[in-house]
Structures are given as C-alpha cells and as structure tokens.
Amino acid sequence: MVPNLTLVKRSSQVSEYFLSLIRQGVYQPNDKLPSLQEMARVLKVSKSTIREGLAALVARGIIDVRHGSGYFVRPSNFASTGSQDGLPDLGQVLSVRELLEVSAARLAALNRDETHLTGMAGCVERMRTDDWDEAINADLEFHLLIAAASGNQVLDQVIGSLSTHTKATMKLSRAIAGTLDDLHQKHWELYRAIHDKDEKRASGLMKAHLRETAERMKVLLRGSRTGVGDHVNR
Predict the structure, then answer these.
(1) Based on the domain organization, do 101 and 136 belong to the same domain?
(2) Rounded to whole angstroms, how far apart are CA atoms 18 and 229?
C-alpha cells in the first residue's frame, strides 16, 4: 500500500513524493509500485496527475513502466545517490533525433522502395497491439526503416546507433500519452507521406511528431533537476 504521508496536489509533488520513498528504501529495486487507483485514492489526486508525476520519474530513469503490469523501481543507483551517470538526457536525445530523423524522412520519401514500404506498414499495424513491449519495438523498427529507406548509409548507421536512447523516448511518450490512438494515427500519416513520395509532408510530420513529444516532456519536467526542459526549449 502507499504510505499515508502528506496530501499531494500537483504532479511535481507526486514525483518528489515517490522519489523520496524510493530513496528511503520504502520501495526497493524491482519493486512494483501501487496501482494508479490506489495512489490516487490515498493521495487524493486524479489518476492523470499521478500518471504525469510518475512519467517524470520514468524520464529520469528511476522507475520503469510495463504496459498491463504497472510501474516498477529500476535497479539503478540513481534512487539512492541522485546520480544520473549512464542515464541519457532524453531532451538531448530528442534534439538529436530531430536533427537526424527529419532529414531521414525527407530522403525516405524520395528513395524508399516496396520492401521498405511493406516493412513500415507492418510496423504501424503492430503498433496497435496491447502488448506494450511489442508496440514500442514496432515503433522503433518503423523509425529505423525510415532511416534505411533514406538511402544514406551513414545517416542510417548513426540513427541505428541511438536505438537504445530512442527507445527510451518512445517509452516516455507512451507513458504520458492519454491515448495511443493519436500516436498511431501520426505514424500512419507519416507512412502515407513516404508512400506518396511527399518529401515536404514527410519531413514536416516527423518534425511535428518529435517536437510535440519534446514539448510534453518540457512541460512535464519543468523545474526538474534533470534539466531536460532546457534542451528542448527552443
């Protein structure tokens, strides 16, 4: 159960509340946190406020979210030391992704072949699944296929080298999304633009998708000690 401490009214307070409990050892590495319903009941806030607060901890690498299972404390030294060593700054990751993937989308619209299109369409369909890990893997594969379809081997390799960090931003995007239908629709529209060889629309959709994720993260983590907001605030 959730320790009955002070009432929490804002998502930032929710983040600090659970971070404090983790640092105190109330929740140990690999422990599952209470359900959203239980947290909201005890802390007397909405589930959306709880979800936003926990998403900030996901971004900071302190907890992990497993679709259908809940939130779990990650086995890292961050909770006890406050150190971010080895953890990616997701704001920086998104900035780099924009620099690389907007160009990749434009080139993919010009250079894609039927094999690329078939693979992308399959990924978008797989993203509909209720299996959290499968949906994220399909999302990552979709973006990697766009890089491959660009026809630029160096760009493809560089984007591929960022896969682990890219996946982390995708997990956060799902953790803070109210519904996945809109996210799926955006990927389908991007696929259609590449399919139709519309390079301007493809690059524009990719930029809008990444900037929207960055903006949500900036708002979510404003004032956070991670400094993520500084990197995505243009």
Answers:
(1) yes
(2) 21
Q: How far apart are CA 50 and CA 108, in angstroms?
A: 39
CB atoms within 10 A of CB 140: 16
Q: Is 46 a domain residue?
A: yes
**Radius of gyration over every alpha carbon of the chain, rounded to an integer in angstroms:** 19
Widest CA span in the chain: 58
Number of domains in the chain: 2
The owner of tokens 């990616």 is 88
- The pLDDT tens digits of the residues spanning 66-120 come to 877 889 998 864 544 444 444 557 788 899 999 999 999 999 999 999 999 999 9
Nearest to 62 by CA among 76, 51, 49, 50: 76
State which residues form the domain around 122: 90-222
> Is the sign of the CA dihedral 143, 144, 149, 150 positive or negative?
positive
Q: Which amino acid is at 161?
A: S
pTM: 0.68
Verify that 179 and 131 share a domain, yes or no: yes
User: Are residues 210 and 114 both part of a single domain?
Assistant: yes
Listed residue (126, 224, 125) closest to 172, CA to CA: 224
Q: Which three-class secondary structure state does DSSP give residue 176?
A: helix
Q: What is the DSSP letter of 32?
A: B
- CA angle in degrees (0–180, nearest 5) for 201-207-213: 135
Task: Render pLDDT for 158-183 as a digit per residue (tens, 0 to 9).
Answer: 999 999 889 888 877 776 655 578 88
d(C-alpha 103, C-alpha 110), whole Å: 11
* Structure tokens, 10: 């804002």
